[in-house]
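Here is a typical sample entry:
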Amino acid sequence: MDGYKAGLIALLLVAGASRNAHAFLDTGTLLTNAASATYTGGSQGTSVTYSATAKILVANPAMFLWKKANGVDKTYVPTAGGIVTYSICFSNGGANTAFNFTITDRWPNNSYWAFAGSSDPSYGAWVGGAQAITASYTTVSLVAGPWQPVTAANPPAGSAAPPTGTATWIRWVIPMMGVGYSGCVQFALSIG
């Protein structure tokens, strides 16, 4: 039985080793790619080799994110039913454009969607470069969704975060964020 287990483990390791591996490189990493060509010429079997290299300097985006409630770092809601407007702002201070930058935020327990009108700041978003930002929410799974679009009627005003043990998540996807650009997303909740 021990030989069977060892063989199974070795098979799993070999199967796993054949997969592609991906890694994120730090800004400033220098990648060098070299190519060579050799040929043999003449009756004496003389070989000649030519080589060339290309160098690439890695430049990544550096995304910064901060969140405020009602425009300040700490907010106190004096009574139940008070409205809290959350702003999540971001900027790209890196050396390259960021693509599909995704922000997710979990509603606090005991909170309710406060605004759902098309002119309300409940799903407002803006970013330098006047790009469209899509907002969506889920009450099922942060990883799997399903994600529902945030619209003037969705989620309905007054809809509560789900029961304890589950959560409501809201997310925004910024398709492209250039170097030096910044923006904010905003939503409002009523605290129960």
Remarks:
- Helices lie at 2-17.
